[in-house]
Every structure is written in structure tokens, then in C-alpha cells.
Amino acid sequence: MSGRDERLGRLTEVGAALKDAALSRLRGAAAECRRLEAAIDALDDAARRAAEEADVAHRAVSGDSLERLYRQRRRALNAELARARAAEAMLMRDAARAFGRDDALRQLLRRSERG
Length: 115
Fold this sequence. Notes:
Oligomer: single chain
CATH topology: Helix Hairpins
Order of helices and strands: HHH
Distance between the termini: 12 Å
Number of strands: 0
């Protein structure tokens, strides 16, 4: 292998490492979105169960404070989820770019090895 091919080989390795790093960051962002979605589902389930189980006396005492707390928490989780999805979208774009670069470098390396 010539010096030129070795440099191209090292560049291909760097491209693969950058692709793996981008994919790892994307996995983390996707996991955060799934975590927030699960938290919203759990909050909704808890609110639904509480509404079903609460008797008239309990509702009269608590008023709408439980509903207000639920809405505040739901709003906060929705905002977090929106930020997480935006971050995931940006990381997806970055990962696609890294995949493209890696593929281009691999093709270039194969061409240089053939002739």
C-alpha cells in the first residue's frame, strides 16, 4: 500500500469513528425522547386512575388543585419533549451527513485499491 493509500485508509477510519460517534449521540437523543414519552404516558395514566378512584368528598376537598398540578407537569414534560425532539432531529441530520461522508470515503478507498 502506498503512502497515499495509507492516508486514505486512516481518513476512512476517522470517518467511521465520526459516524459511530454521531450514531451514539443520536441513540442517546432517541432514548431521551422515549423516556419523556413514557413519563407523559405514566402521568396520564396516574391522572386517569386518580380521577376514577377519587370519590365526591375527595374531589370537593382537593378542588381543581390536582388537575392544575397535572396540567403543569404535563406542560413541562411536553416542553422537554419538544426540545428533545428538536435535538434528535438535528442529531439525525448530523448522523446522515456522517454516514454520507463515511460511505464516500469507503468508496474512494475501494477505487484507490482497485487501480
